[in-house]
Amino acid sequence: MGFPFSSGDVLTAADMNAIGDWTSFTPTFNNVTLGASGTVVGRYAVVNDLVFYTVKFDLGGTGSVSGQITFDVPVGTPDSSNQYATSHMGWCRPATTFYHAMGFSGNSTTQIYSYAYKINVGTYSNITPTSATVPATWTSNGIFYMAGWYAKT
After folding, report:
1. Contacts (Cβ under 8 Å, ≥6 apart) of 107
2. Partners of 32 in the beta sheet?
3. Structural contact between residues 130 and 123, judged by C-beta atoms closer than 8 angstroms
4. Checking DSSP bridges between strand 29-33 and strand 64-72, what pairing results, if any?
5. What average pLDDT does the segment 17-33 reach?
6. Residue 31 burial (CB count, 10 A)
């Protein structure tokens, strides 16, 4: 994807408005099993080589998390040259109370890995991979949301 025009082209208002249009997609989450009424939604926009995304799942009844939560990127392969810093942030609510801050890392050419920020009173926060019990034990109707961007090759 990218711009459907070249340098020197005369652009219409419609061309300009289409830059960065959002496209819906169904993210593939790993180590996540949706239960009854569980949902997964996502969208992304591409501007040149930058991909902006949002993804969310709601476990629904009897849903579960079995390991570190990862998701497959919607398009392209994230640039691993470290030429561009990426940004991935979000939140989760594993049970029916307490929201937790999340960070993400592109540790793979096809997936984004999630990490929970754990705040310890009187100390700095530490970062731990998400799991069935991190940042808390996941129960029915747990929610996970993330947004970010990466440069694709």
Report:
1. 113
2. 65
3. no
4. antiparallel
5. 91
6. 16
